[in-house]
């Protein structure tokens, strides 16, 4: 009996040692895998950070933001390739929810598991960074901050002609004095809810001391052109017509478009200016504000497209710009994206015409921007006779009617109305859309419009979104500070000298 017990114990110990040895082997293997993975990711991150300019402020944080965006885009493409969901829906899910994927999944156990994991990781990272006092991940405080966050801004939801809107009012309810107002058109056009933009709009309202009217327009491609434009136009007309009902000064109504929202804001401004020119009894806008604007898809080979394309490809690239235009049309086809990138989406005779040069010629750019890429800058898009064999005729037939339409592409307006309001255009030196804003600023000036062009050489696309909190970037904060200061000064104390 005793011998049997000893034998069982020895057998158990042998099995335990075998299991322990197996577990240790697995642990060592996993540890090696984690270490190798860490080295690969670190090496990739380091190489990406080295691609940023040497004098780029906060290069580590900026690279982290770009790589996070790149990860989202790659994940979205993978999800589409394996048939999980369309890449656009996956991207929406990541960017519109701090917990991720809520916008693309049902209330399933898998969704809740993912949410739990994301929240847990977020909490651990925040605790780790707080313990080590790492400024990168620890939320910034508002002590001595020169931009108010707008926590006390009042909001009122309404509906204009079937379009949801939200008023942001930075003054007490008892104050019925008419105030300036800005109709705000957010960027992306294919995504973005009020929750995404809420903190930014509160900041604008509080620091400009104006009512901000946020437009919840319909998204493309589910609602392609002209649906987003129609929604924003309807709200703008409603505000102009009914300003007195909302304690808004009818003579101080402006419009702002950020990134892709700029193409809508520019078209609305052109339309209202022309209507006022045709009949002075029609209302007019006081100011147009374009923040790092996307304004054209006629030529995606401008100097800034080529020199900046690889710097922040996670934030914005030529490929994403081309896809945006396709989605804005309500279409979804990579073949047409390729056509836009290769410049075979417009009739050849138009590309070679004097009108094309007047609209988007490189002579509209400062010399320093025309020489920021190797080689000579072409004055027209290079043509290739072999394009026809790959479907140029189909691309032109399908796409040209959109791009040649002034309501779709504001660059197509040759004669800008002299009643166009004063305009503020913000551009960034490392943004692939830099030249869109610069060309439009010079075209407006040639038309006699008073323009304030503010350029931030070390900024990148949408860096102004990182103006506050743990992802605060100093250049983004600077852009917002100077923007709200200038807009506030003009709306409350009109003085043309600020546009000198």
Can you walk through the features of this model?
The structure is a single chain. With 500 residues, the chain is α/β, with parallel strands linked by helices. Residues 98-108, 125-144 and 373-392 have low confidence and may be disordered. The chain is built from 16 helices and 8 strands.
Poorly predicted tracts of residues: 98-108, 125-144, 373-392
Annotation field: number of helices: 16
> Helical content, roughly?
40-55%
Strands ordered across the widest β-sheet: 1-2-4-3-5-6-7-8
Strand content: 5-15%
| Cα radius of gyration in angstroms | 27 Å
Count of β-strands: 8
The major pleated sheet works out as: 8 strands, mixed
Query: What is the overall shape?
Result: globular
Order of helices and strands: HHHHEEEHEHEHEHHHHHHHEHEH
Mean pLDDT: 80
Quick synopsis:
By secondary structure, the chain is α/β, with parallel strands linked by helices. It contains 16 helices and eight strands. The protein has an eight-stranded mixed beta sheet with strand order 1-2-4-3-5-6-7-8, with helices on both faces.
Topology overview:
Blueprint: H1 2-51, H2 59-81, H3 87-96, H4 109-131, E1 154-160, E2 163-169, E3 179-185, H5 194-208, E4 211-215, H6 227-241, E5 248-258, H7 261-278, E6 287-291, H8 303-308, H9 318-329, H10 334-342, H11 348-351, H12 354-360, H13 367-370, H14 392-403, E7 422-428, H15 434-446, E8 451-456, H16 474-492
Parallel strand pairs: 3-4, 3-5, 5-6, 6-7, 7-8
Antiparallel strand pairs: 1-2, 2-4
Helix pairs in contact: 2-3, 6-7, 9-10
